[in-house]
Design brief:
Elements (H helix, E strand, L loop, with lengths): L1 H11 L34 H24 L3 H4 L6 H22 L9 H9 L5 H26 L20 H22 L11 H21 L5 H10 L7 H23 L3
Helix pairs in contact: 2-4, 2-6, 4-8, 5-6, 5-7, 5-10, 6-9, 7-8, 7-10, 9-10
């Protein structure tokens, strides 16, 4: 009898997910995850998913055009690509730019604009498998569209005239070190996102969540640009390299390392940073 009474108290205190999560049975139980369960997401196959698909597509397109585009602006390239002012300017462009994009998309798709984020929110049981896959397809489609628009509008005659590709920038830095740095940076970003959307912290939805995410991205760019130009996003790490014909074996680091960062961050958040 006491066990059933205690179970009733725990269940009564569990909140249902506030984001698209899928089947009704996936919204109950699991105290550590706020009552969320993994879901394939057949319930999400509706008009809202189509709206959110195009929101993610446009948001990721904006990210590539404006944020990667800032690395190719005449004003900033004149500073010199090894100038601290250049690094700081690009970091501000990415941090504030992505924060703004997340704010714009927050009431529709949630503003993932990063396949590693979509994977993390699936692993954290906040979106269904169907939603995560749809978002990832939209993000890569938007990324390639943005890279094509940026390359066309820039009037570049070849990829050699462009900047902002992800690559290993220090000779003594091995591929395994670059991979670890990208995993580490992505994990920090994912932990920040999971903290800002944690209902148990009592955050009221506001501009502060996108701002916190933008600040985390800004800090990671200041840290990682001298090493890898900072991807922490599989789309950002690949599409500009491909469109400018700069893709090589190193590009695989920036495609897969952010996903590994998500795989590390979600259980770490559950085990260490979530009250049990």
């Amino acid at each position: 009898k006491q066990w059933y009474q205690r179970r009733a108290v725990i269940t009564a205190g569990v909140k249902e997910p506030t984001e698209m999560g899928g089947d009704a049975e996936a919204k109950v139980n699991g105290a550590r995850t706020g009552g969320r369960r993994f879901s394939f997401g057949m319930d999400d196959l509706n008009g809202r998913l189509i709206q959110n698909f195009f929101a993610e597509l446009l948001g990721t397109m904006f990210l590539i055009i404006f944020c990667v585009g800032s690395a190719n602006s005449t004003a900033l390239t004149a500073l010199g690509e090894n100038s601290p002012a250049y690094y700081l300017s690009i970091s501000l462009a990415f941090g504030l730019g992505i924060g703004g994009i997340v704010h714009i998309l927050s009431s529709t798709s949630g503003g993932h604009v990063n396949p590693a984020v979509s994977l993390a929110l699936f692993l954290d049981r906040r979106v269904s498998l169907l939603v995560a896959l749809a978002y990832i397809v939209a993000q890569f489609a938007g990324g390639f569209a943005g890279a094509g628009i940026l390359y066309g509008l820039g009037g570049f005659e070849s990829g050699d005239q462009t900047a902002g590709q992800n690559m290993i920038l220090i000779d003594r830095l091995g591929a395994e070190h670059a991979f670890f740095l990208e995993v580490f940076g992505t994990a920090f970003l994912i932990l920040t996102i999971l903290a800002t959307i944690d209902e148990k912290r009592g955050h009221a939805p506001s501009y502060l969540q996108p701002l916190a995410i933008g600040i985390a991205i800004l800090v990671m760019h200041i840290f990682l640009i001298p090493f890898t130009n900072c991807a922490i996003n599989p789309v950002r790490g690949t599409v500009w390299n491909v469109v400018t014909d700069k893709a090589d074996s190193e590009t695989l680091i920036f495609l897969f390392a952010p996903f590994v960062g998500s795989l590390v961050a979600v259980p770490l958040n559950l085990l260490i940073f979530t009250p049990h």
